[in-house]
Structures are given as structure tokens and as C-alpha cells.
Amino acid sequence: MNEVEFTIITGLSGAGKSETMKCFEDMEYFCIDNLPPTLIGKVADLCSVPGSHVKKVALGVDVRGGAFFDDLFEALDDLKRRGIPYQILFLEASDIALVKRFKETRRRHPLSEEGQVIDGINLERKIMEPLRDQADMVIDTGELEAFELKDKIRSMFLGSDKQKGLLISVISFGYKYGVPIYADLVMDVRFLPNPHYIDELKEHDGTEKDVRSFVLDRKETATFMKKFLNLLTFLLPHYISEGKTHLAIAIGCTGGTHRSVALAEESAKFLADKGYAVTTRHRDVGRSTRKG
Description:
This protein is of the alpha/beta class and 292 residues long.
């Protein structure tokens, strides 16, 4: 029989199941969302036939009623009897965070018959409690942005499978909007000349050729990047040896549009070429008021 591993993704409505499913798709899992639990066994059959290349399956399920709930546990017991490994990932968040998300999206909670979101949340927590108790992993998404949730999931599920065993996030930012509170390492590059004051570069950003050339072709930039990348080369193996699975490197300039973006792109490329798993995010590009 083809050995297949199942991950059941569930949790509270509004806690981030859709974003999580997208992340599992990016990690090359075979994904099915909103699958009726009675069909889990059928999926296992299809993935286990000779010639199937499916090794990792992620199933998104919601438990909102007694019969549905019973069907899910029966399906999981069936996987266990058949020797098919599975794990349950449960997503949750605080009442305040969930209410805020429903208000922002103007969605109605699926269990709030009278339109009171908090009533639906309370009912769902009660229904979901037995499943949460059986979960292998619980993630509180209340304080996580979408990219942070993605990074957390990647570090949990890829970890040792990725070369170097470390997921690195490189973030550009503008000091005028604040330093990212989740950053492990912060580098200030405001010492470099600012393209904001060059008319033909002002309205462009550090991902574009002319801005990149202005920033990267300078002697002081080359000297800085050599020292900075050497520092990262020294630090990363030590982080790994200490068991760190995720590292956020923030590079900042005044407005997070030009210098920090160009250097974040260059740093991410260097780390990827070294075999590290790297994601890049330009936090402040596109802000209405931009400066360097």
C-alpha cells in the first residue's frame, strides 16, 4: 500500500482555515477543503492505489453539528484501524479577534442565527471542544498576520525536510511606520543615499531595475552587503544548532520603498542560493505617503 499521511485542518470559523489551506497547497500537499467526513475513507482509498504519487494530504473540515461531529471521529478511527497516519491541526483565536474579522469582512457567522457573531462563536467553541482536545497542534491566530501564519505553518511542517532546517523571512520596512515587532534581526540602511530625492526614481520602488541600480551599484552598498551577508553566514548555523526554526530579518529605511526593498531582495536571493528556505515581504511598499 502507498504510504500516505493525512493532516486534518479544522478549527473555529474566522480563525484562518482558508489561508492555511493555501499554505498547504504551496507546500505541495494534495488539498481538499470542506470535505464531508464520510468521504475521508474514500480519499484514503484513492491515494493508496498502486501508482498513486500522493504522499501528503491536507483535508479542511468544519464540525458544526452532532451528526457531522460523529462522522468525523468515525472516519478518523477508520484511518487509525487501517494504519494510515494522521494529525489534527486546530486553528483558534480570541473572541475579540474573531468578532473583528467578521466585522471587517461583513460575513455572518455560520452559527449565529440572529446575527449576533459572539453567540455563534460561543456555540462553535462548545461544539468544537472535543476535537480541540484531540488536536496534535493548536495555533492561536489572533495576533498573527496572514504571512506570519504561513511562516509558522511552514516551519512546523517543513522544518527538517528543508535544507538547513530554517525558514527565513526577509522583510523590508519604513522606520516612519514603525519597526516590525516580530523581527529577530533589524538592520538600518538609512545611511545610504535616498532615491526618494531623485525625480525619476521617486515614484518607483526597490524591486525595479533603475532603483536597484542606484542603490546596489554604490561602493558603500557593496561594502555593507559584504559585511552584512558575512554576518548572516556566521549567525545562521548557530541559530540552527540552537533549534531555531524561523528567523525574521527586517531591513529598514525611511519609508520602506527604495533602499530597504532593494537590499531585502538582494539578501533573500543570497540566502536562497545558499539553500535556505526564504520568503520575502515588502511591508510598506504602496503606502500613500512614501519616502525612501
